[in-house]
């Protein structure tokens, strides 16, 4: 199924980053004056996405597109560690919306 493997060091770093991002994002929900649109995005999209990314690291599927199962570019994962699709599949998914 998944032929390519990310290094243990890379995955450990991504997991630590995601855990820290989860803590910071959760804390930001309590910030006074946070616009409702940002609060909704963080609570309904970003936090569940971070939880899902951590789960994918734990089960060995992190870094692989959920649609085509090909590896997601490492640079994309470094910029957006909670993404679950490669750029081509994300483009297709966005066009369907």
Lay out the secondary structure:
Elements: H1 8-28, H2 36-59, H3 74-79, H4 87-96
Q: What is this entry, summarized?
A:
The protein has 97 residues and is mainly alpha-helical. It has helices at residues 8-28, 36-59, 74-79, 87-96. 13% of the residues are buried.
Tags for this model:
97 residues, mainly alpha, 63% helix, flat
Can you offer a commentary on this structure?
The chain contains four helices and no strands. With 97 residues, it is mainly alpha-helical. Helix 1 (8-28) runs antiparallel to helix 2. The longest helix is centred in the middle third of the chain and has 24 residues, at 36-59. It is flat, with a radius of gyration of 14 Å. The relative contact order is 0.15. The model has no long low-confidence stretch (mean pLDDT 92).
Shape call: flat
Largest sheet: none
- Radius of gyration of CA atoms, rounded to a whole number: 14 Å
Number of helices: 4
Approximate helicity band: 55-70%
Low-pLDDT stretches are none
- Number of separate strands: 0
- The overall pLDDT average reads 92
């Amino acid at each position: 199924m998944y032929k390519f493997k990310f290094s243990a060091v890379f995955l450990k770093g991504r997991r630590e980053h995601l855990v820290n991002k989860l803590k910071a994002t959760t804390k930001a929900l309590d910030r006074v004056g946070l616009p409702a649109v940002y609060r909704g995005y963080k609570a309904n999209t970003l936090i569940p996405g971070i939880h899902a990314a951590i789960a994918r690291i734990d089960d060995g599927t992190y870094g692989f597109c959920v649609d085509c199962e090909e590896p997601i570019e490492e640079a994309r994962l470094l910029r957006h560690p909670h993404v679950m699709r490669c750029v081509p599949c994300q483009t297709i998914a966005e066009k369907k919306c």
